[in-house]
Each structure stands twice: as structure tokens, then as C-alpha cells.
Amino acid sequence: MNVPIVQLRELTLDDVEERYQWSLDKEVTNHLVVPDQYPPFTREDTKKWIEACINRKNGYEQRAITTENGIHIGWVDLKNFDKTNKNAELGIAIGNKEYWGKGYGIAALYSMLHLAFFEFELEKVWLRVDEDNFQARKSYEKAGFVCEGLMRNDRLRQGKFIHRYRYSMLREEYESINSSL
């Protein structure tokens, strides 16, 4: 599979303004699981969140996604770590819509999966995706994630319960995919 080159880097306070602007875009935030008062975030809320990520105080291992030319286009994270069973949940958002549908999300997924399996020594990475987020589901399947099933009424979004699918990738599956990249 041909994917663009991306880099994952630690978040910095320089990321606050872009993150804040992305949080105001309903297309970007529609499928994100965020606290009820969001969106929109305030700049101060965004800054506090990024500070918590930088200081590792919120249980997230979050990284900024940048293009080969250093353009910040989104973020990817691991959360809900289960150290006993060696798994964690993955989340991703491409906030800069100029990069949607061009493979940057898949490239960032693979980079974060490498960290998950080799730095954090996980056995499994899983994610949840809204039933109506067809583009994301297609992308996860293209990337090699396996659908484990439908979780009914799993998320309250805008006052209505929606179903979500759970997808996962095992370390051995990633290693097989990675060897062919």
C-alpha cells in the first residue's frame, strides 16, 4: 500500500490555535467523543487539554500528526490502557480538511501502531467508530483493522443513542502489514 510520509511528534503549546480552530469545525468534531460541553472548546480549554497531554496527566499518549514538510494536520492517541491484557484504544482526527481522503490518516495510524506494539509492547489496539462514519470504517478496514462487532446504543451523541462498531488489530497482524509497506 502506498501511503504518504507523516511524522508523529509530541504536542507543544504552539499547537493550541490550530487545535482550537479545528474544534470549531462540526465536520471535524462530529464523530469525536468529547465531553458534553464541547464543542466548541475555548482556547483556554484547548490549552489545558494540550498541557495535560504534554504532562501525561490524562491517561492519553497523544501525538501531533505532521506531513513530511512539517505541516500539522491532526492528532492520534492511545488511551484506556489495559496493562494486564496489553491493549489500548486508538483515536485519530485529521483536523486539516485539505488532507482528508489522501492517505494521511492511514499513515498516522501505522506510525502510532508501531509505537503501540514496539514502545508500549501492546498485543492489541482497538477503536470504536460511529455506525454512520462510513469513511472512517472504510479507512480502518483498508488499513487492516478487523471488525469485532456492533455495540448497540453505545454512545450518546447530540441527545440520541447511536451504535458503534469495534475494530482491532493484533500485533502479529500489524507485523504482517508492516513487512509489506
TrEMBL record:
<protein>
    <submittedName>
        <fullName>GNAT family N-acetyltransferase</fullName>
    </submittedName>
</protein>
<dbReference type="InterPro" id="IPR016181">
    <property type="entry name" value="Acyl_CoA_acyltransferase"/>
</dbReference>
<keyword id="KW-0808">Transferase</keyword>
<dbReference type="GO" id="GO:0016747">
    <property type="term" value="F:acyltransferase activity, transferring groups other than amino-acyl groups"/>
</dbReference>
<dbReference type="Pfam" id="PF13302">
    <property type="entry name" value="Acetyltransf_3"/>
</dbReference>
<dbReference type="InterPro" id="IPR000182">
    <property type="entry name" value="GNAT_dom"/>
</dbReference>
